[in-house]
Helix-turn-helix domain-containing protein
Amino acid sequence: MGKTLSNLRKTASRRAAMPVLTVSQIAKRWRLSSDTVRLILTCHDQPKASGPWRHPRYAFVDILRLEGVQGERLTRYEDFPDLTEPLMTAAEVAEIFKCVPATIRNYAAQDLTPSIRLGGSIRFRRSEVRGLNDAD
């Protein structure tokens, strides 16, 4: 029981150190419009971070959960630089692989490439795309 409480305290303190993001910061990260971001956050019932802010802010860890990051990876600091990079669009990934964006979207639909679905949009984590590029 004591070890469980200790782990909970560690996780809580790490989460408290995580930043909060405004809707416009999330929009830049996801490369979507602010209206689309608000709609996605509302549809997923994302809680607003408490604080003295004028505009709503959301905990970075909650945004990562929306992007599909789970478990241990949320609290490991060695993964933090990869997780903070903005997500890539299909067009940006297509430039890297020298193909058309439709091909990348088709690969994502068939689960051939790791992707993140945000509403109707598909985004890609830069570190995972680098891993695919290195595998070729």
Observations:
- The first strand starts at residue 20 and ends at 22.
